[in-house]
Design brief:
- It is a single chain.
- This protein is mainly beta.
- The chain folds into four domains: 43-449, Galactose oxidase/kelch, beta-propeller (Methylamine Dehydrogenase, Chain H, 7 Propeller), CATH 2.130.10; 462-554, Immunoglobulin-like (Sandwich), CATH 2.60.40; 564-663, Immunoglobulin-like (Sandwich), CATH 2.60.40; 666-765, Immunoglobulin-like.
- Strands 44, 45, 47, 49, 51 and 52 form a six-stranded mixed sheet that branches. Strands 2, 3, 30, 31 and 33 form a five-stranded antiparallel sheet that branches. A five-stranded antiparallel sheet has the order 7-6-5-4-37, with no helix packed on it.
- Strand 26 and strand 27 form a beta hairpin.
- The radius of gyration is 38 Å and the shape is elongated.
């Protein structure tokens, strides 16, 4: 394959243009006289190409570009943060602008850590039919770090959509089509870029032509395309594509989701729809403009349901950022910013702090620590009016924004931003059309890369991971440097960004344990949370500094379902006095299936209030692993206390029976009753035995019986009934009727739950 060298492209620009742009002091056109491609900022941008000053990074002319290309000292190594000033540790640092071989309208982070970008010609003109670029950050930022290659497919992928598939290839779908010499019709063509060979090839066409569609990776490893405009030839009126399609990478086939056809979802919302995988597997749709929300299922030909909840009105030129599973940070109109929680069937919209100013065509990027940085934009869409150069950082823990460092280049329409494996953020582009043609990029180094004095912080070292790929729910072991104390492990799905929209990025915080240099974590088992794809794993030390990431794929292999069992089946507690707590007993929960979580642990039954538990059954329980429920018994009443311990998980309930007996202290007095000598065959006067309830609750009287060697010679009557109140007494009157001469005795036994007391009664017969 022929490589197009940067210097050759420079000299390929018409001489008149080169002369016009050669002066380093050339200024951008007056915004008042520049055609505004987004005069109606709530509408769709006009893609009519326009001449605009070309800015190649260091200055605004082609001579400086040539100097950069030929200078041996021009390379910047983005893997090493530059020294900053006193504000670097709070605001970060923007690196110096560097030349880019085209306007990076579309940017994809490849599995090997390189960056693919495309969108324009080498002169920054609209069109991605001619070239695309692959940049290797480890080689710096000069011309030698870029591999600019010809697009051999004859497909103009300008303003299409793209995503990385599980096999590491990049799927592009749709884009521009020239009809009768006029641009901006839609095409239904798809292509596949293969990083191993740096080659791009034609692929199976979609059913619909799509311009400005969104491509989204799904939990089963397929991809779905949403929205877009299908006009071919006449461009007005706009004809949206209301029907999503699903791509199967193994078969290379597209299937229409006819059941999910929706004009409300993809009519007014056809322009790069904000679509995201919701926990549970449905697709959540947030309308960029009117704030309507939908849940879409891809099962059985598709279906879609509208939510009654709406977000504030917004704009297609404002970013919405998926910052956590089931959560979006959405910048809306008039500087409003909301958090949309779509983790349940009814989304929750919560206001957070407003952003610093209106930022049309800003980009939002999730950083290695889970914070969101917004870069670029201006108060008037795609005009040099109210340009915002300063990064703004939003913290999901506080809901507050922090001012970051300022860039030197305006990032307006067709600009871009993406997190890199070194935890920096690539920002670049803008133009085609625009007030400037930005053939340049700036790398933003966030504050977590700096010490308080502005010097680059020492990073922890992520030496290796134990596998090159993982399944959802797998155990991951990572090795770090010998001196590294790690406070956090984070996963971020590699990005695929265009037009202020990066639906592929996804941040996940991991729980882990550290033993020496070894970190052990269990990945989320739910592939609707850990959506299959390529992820950057960062380890962050106790100072909050992230490592350089390790990139690996997470498969679409659904783990076997969890299957829990409990043992023993029955717990029996010793007799326990009311108000006291018996020694706790363990119940072991074992996961006999795939990784899963315990959804609930509770007691049921009449005596449920006498039992309590603590447990170690939090988080994901790995296959074959166990956790322990420690059950305690504190009787609230005397008597038998039976309940059921219910353990809910993996869609089933496992149970164990818990049995205890509560008792109340009581006394029987006197301990011995001696009758006077009584004539054989006659009955004595009754003598009393007193029962006293010494406890704090009612005392159930189970039985009062006579036993011992001569129970038949004694009888009793009582007023004890079946229950004796706390502190109460009752009397048992015993009568002696001797059957023969000599000493005879028996026992009067009073039985209560868990306790029996007795009094000896006896006398001589004469």
């Amino acid at each position: 394959m022929k490589t197009i060298k940067l210097a050759r492209l420079i000299f390929g620009v018409p001489l008149a243009v080169a002369v016009l742009l050669a002066s380093p002091s050339a200024q951008p056109a007056d915004p008042a006289t520049t055609a505004d491609p987004t005069a109606d900022t709530a509408g769709i941008p006009d893609e009519t190409d326009a001449n605009a000053p070309v800015d190649t990074g260091s200055g605004t002319g082609l001579l400086s570009t040539l100097k950069n290309a030929l200078s041996s000292g021009s390379s910047v190594k983005p893997m090493t943060a530059p020294t900053g000033g006193s504000t670097a540790s709070t605001g970060g640092v923007f690196g110096a602008p560097v030349t880019w071989p085209l306007i990076p309208i579309h940017v994809v982070l490849l599995p090997d850590g390189r960056v693919m970008s495309y969108g324009t010609t080498a002169a920054g003109k609209q069109g991605a039919m001619l070239i695309y670029d692959v940049w290797d950050p480890t080689l710096g930022t000069d011309a030698s770090s870029h591999l600019t290659l010809p697009n051999s497919t004859s497909t103009d992928i300008f303003c299409g959509t793209q995503s990385v598939m599980l096999n590491g290839q990049v799927l592009t779908s749709g884009g521009d089509l020239t009809v009768n010499g006029a641009r901006n019709s839609a095409n239904n063509t798809t292509t596949i870029f293969t990083p191993a060979s740096n080659s791009i090839a034609p692929n199976t066409a979609m059913a619909y032509a799509r311009w400005y569609a969104t491509l989204l990776g799904l939990p089963d490893g397929t991809l779905a395309v949403f929205g877009g405009r299908q006009n071919v030839g006449p461009l007005t009126p706009i004809i949206p594509v209301p029907t999503p399609e699903v791509y199967n990478p193994s078969l290379r086939t597209w299937t229409q989701l006819s059941g999910a056809t929706s004009t409300p979802a993809f009519g007014a919302n056809w322009w790069y729809p904000r679509v995201h995988v919701a926990p549970g597997g449905k697709i959540f749709v947030l309308n960029s403009t009117n704030g309507r929300m939908f849940y879409l299922s891809t099962a059985n030909g598709g279906s879609i349901t509208a939510s009654t909840v709406t977000a504030p009105t917004g704009n297609i030129a404002l970013p919405t950022i998926p910052f956590a599973p089931g959560k979006l940070l959405s910048v809306r109109s008039n500087q409003q910013v909301v958090v949309v929680d779509y983790s349940t069937s009814t989304p929750v919209v919560t206001a957070t702090d407003p952003i610093d100013q209106v930022r049309f065509w800003a980009s939002g990027t999730v950083m290695a620590d889970g914070r969101v940085v917004v870069t670029g934009g201006s108060q008037v869409a795609n005009k040099l009016t109210g340009v915002d150069y300063q990064a703004q950082i939003w913290d999901p823990k506080t809901g507050h924004w922090t001012a970051g460092a300022s860039a030197t280049k305006p990032r307006l329409y067709h600009s871009n931003a993406m997190l890199l494996p070194d935890a920096s953020v690539l920002t670049g582009g803008g133009g085609a059309p625009g007030p400037l043609t930005n053939l340049n990029a700036e790398i933003y180094y966030p504050p977590y890369l700096y010490n308080a004095d502005g010097t680059p912080a020492t990073r922890p070292t992520l030496v290796s991971t134990d596998q090159s790929s993982y399944d959802p729910g797998a155990t991951l072991t990572a090795t770090v440097g010998p001196a590294d104390t790690i406070s956090r492990m984070t996963l971020i799905r590699t990005g695929s960004s265009t037009h202020a929209n990066n639906v592929d990025q996804r941040f996940i915080e991991l729980s882990f344990t550290q033993t020496g240099q070894s970190l052990v974590t269990t990945l989320p088992a739910d592939n609707t949370v850990l959506v299959p794809g390529y992820y950057m794993l960062f380890v962050i030390n106790s100072a909050g500094v992230p490592s350089i990431a390790s990139i690996f794929p997470v498969s679409a292999n659904a783990p076997p379902p969890a299957s829990f069992s409990v043992s023993p089946a029955t717990l029996t507690f010793a007799v326990t006095q009311v108000g006291s707590t018996a020694a706790a007993q363990p119940v072991t929960v074992m996961n006999n299936g795939g990784p899963g979580q315990i959804a609930g642990i509770s007691f049921a039954g009449a005596a449920a209030g006498s039992y309590a538990q603590t447990n170690t059954c939090t988080g994901v329980i790995a296959a074959g692993a166990t956790c322990t429920i420690s059950v305690s018994y504190t009787p609230v009443a005397a008597g038998a206390a039976k309940a059921t311990l219910n353990v809910v998980g993996a869609g089933a309930t496992q149970s164990a029976t818990v049995i205890g007996t509560g008792s109340e202290p009581f006394t029987v007095t006197p301990a011995t009753v001696t009758f006077p000598a009584t004539t054989v065959g006659t009955s004595s006067a009754p003598l009393p035995v007193t029962v006293t309830n010494a406890g704090s609750a009612a005392l159930p009287i189970t039985s009062i019986t006579l036993g011992g060697p001569a129970p038949a010679q004694f009888s009793q009557t009582n007023n004890c009934g079946t229950s004796l109140p706390a502190g109460g007494t009752c009397t048992i009157n015993v009568v002696y009727t001797p059957a023969g001469t000599g000493y005879n005795w028996a026992k009067v036994s009073i039985a209560t739950p868990g306790n029996t007391q007795s009094s000896k009664v006896g006398g001589n017969g004469s």
